[in-house]
Structure of Amino acid transporter:
Amino acid sequence: MSTNEQEPLISRPTSSAESGKTLVSSDESNAPIREGTMRTIEDDVLPETSTLGRTITWSSAYILVISRVIGSGIFATPGVIVKGVGSVGLSLSLWVVGAIIAACGLAVSLEYGCMLPRSGGEKVYLEFTYRKPRFLASTLVATQAVLLGFTASNCIVFAQYTLYAFDIEATDYLRKTLAVGLLTTITIVHGCFMKTGIRIQNFLGWIKVALVVFMIVSGAFVVLFKPQGTDGKRSHFPTGADLWKDTDWSWGIISTSLFKVFYSFAGLSNVNNSVSITALVTACLMYLLVNVAYFVVVPLDEVKNSGELIAALFFERCFGPTVGKTLLPLAVALSGVGNVMVVTFALARLNQEIARQGFLPYSKLLASSKPFNAPLGGLIVHYIPSFIVIVLPPSSDVYSFILEVEGYPGQVFALASSIGLLWLRYKRPDLRRPFKAWGMAVLLRVALSTALLAAPFFPPKGGHTKGGIWYATYALVGISVIVFGLGYWYFWFKLIPRWRGYRVEEETSTLDDGTTTFERPFEVHPVTVRDVRGREKDFTLDGNGFQFYRNTANEKDFLDDEKIKAGYYAEVEQLLKDATGASRIFIFDHTIRRQVPDSAAKSDSKLRGPVQRVHIDQSYTASLSRVAHHLPAEAESLLRSRVQIINVWRPIKTVQRDPLAVAEASSVNDEGLVVIPLIYPTRKGETYSVKYDAGHRWFYKSGLTPDEVLLIKCFDSKLDGRARRVPHTAFHVPGAEDKEGRESIEVRALVFHEDEALE
């Protein structure tokens, strides 16, 4: 078996229950586990089990991304940005810088996405990279997504442009009423009529792109063909020294302006392939041309005083008070609707993922796609903070404030993901990377994120406030969200478990709609493990699922993989034939377990410590599929007769610590087995985790020597009532902490009985 196949891209052992230190495990990954570590290397990446699936086409994906990117930003932020930085030159420069940084961020996301091909985005990347402290990365991302994952800004822009189009005074009450009405309507549509909602957002996405193209063409038309105005100008675009006149080079002002530019490029990483690259190029060109069109048509003083209505002024000057002041602002409002729909749906899916992993209360309810096969629970979680942000602050100041509050903690995660990517390149060079980000792009993102996090400590000229809100309020709110996440994590995952005497572990459950959720039980279940020394012959493969068998191997050290395959495999093959009467043996892999010293951790990726989780290496389905995978030409005939998978477990030295225990097959019901999917580069596999049951009967042999092997039956196709599979795990023996660490080799083999029927 190749190294790529031995190590799954995606796997997730989950413990439905515990027995002392015994947890549930997948055992198909050959990644290193340090002594005392309780998780395999891929544990923190969950299998893809969303019932909504991956069903969109390239064109739908492009519209999804471009609709997510082109929202209220280009219609509302240019005036605010140029007012902040003071000059057209710096404003346009920031749009270029924003596009470059967006490209760097996209490159980081693409590399992560190729390594970890599943939904969840930044949450998956960070929890995979930052495993310790346990659950911290997941909790921080979940907190930020729930508390700051809102679409209030686009709802507000929709309200402002709608009121402007109908020449209605934009009072605080009317703005908030329209914004909340839009948010509520979209939540209902996506939650109850998901397919209809997707069709609507696709249609509005094309309108949005067409509107931006129309604005670009309109600006060019005005410059080329419109007669001179009363001021004798056909273009108001500043030239020469006026391009940089009144520039404010304060880093605090530049940083908040960059947050608004970043907001306008947000959403590129929704799809990790060529769609995102195409959308980035499209958005960058459109944004630059639209900005130029604004400055050509609208005088600079009016641009600076336009607030979020710069597009409305542009249309009115181009097309007069009827079409320009009514129809085209309504088109902008519709564009905002499309963006709200896309963002709401994307964030609802993220919230559903967070609930699925048990980070929210009522996780089963919120993770379910019932009753309309839509992420209704995630939509509700998204609705609450969006509603609060729309209703509470004064709407005249809230738009810019929201963009800054969203942007600041986002830089914490951008910094963490960028540094994490570099760390993974050093620590995990074995991970497959079909795409690799340019190193300088990653470093540039690290540098800028660091600078933006420091920006609040650089006050604007005179330390003045803007719009009645202190200039660094956004940073305090963003930091508060991070601190709240730290407190939430410490309270639920450290303080309470320590106080009540339990350890937090995941438990899987499958909802009626097929969604898999991960919850965290509090109980620890001690079990009795009986020593079989002196009565080893009472236990057999067919009667109990395991058997102790005396056999002396010629191989002693087990240090050379090629030597093991060339010599020891043949010894094991004969051993299995003698012990089982099989007609044919096919060995498909082996695992050597040794305690991993610090000095060897980086140099030997094949060393593994004992796995202290209850597991069965193969599910019934995966066991049968192995025949077709390894012996495709003969699979059909071989599967007509009896097939087994048996592990041959041998100590390399006499076991003094962390012995292997097996649960008698007849004491473990099939109802207690939980399928754990594994996704390899070329195929899919499955293992079993095991739910706790007080009726499980556990056995081991003390002081097992290299001249004794333990035969572990992982699968048997025979259906006549004999043992078909046996769970196993390493376990901790009190008082053995100072003894020599366990060393063992486990060989896995397909065992064929070509003369035996299945029944």
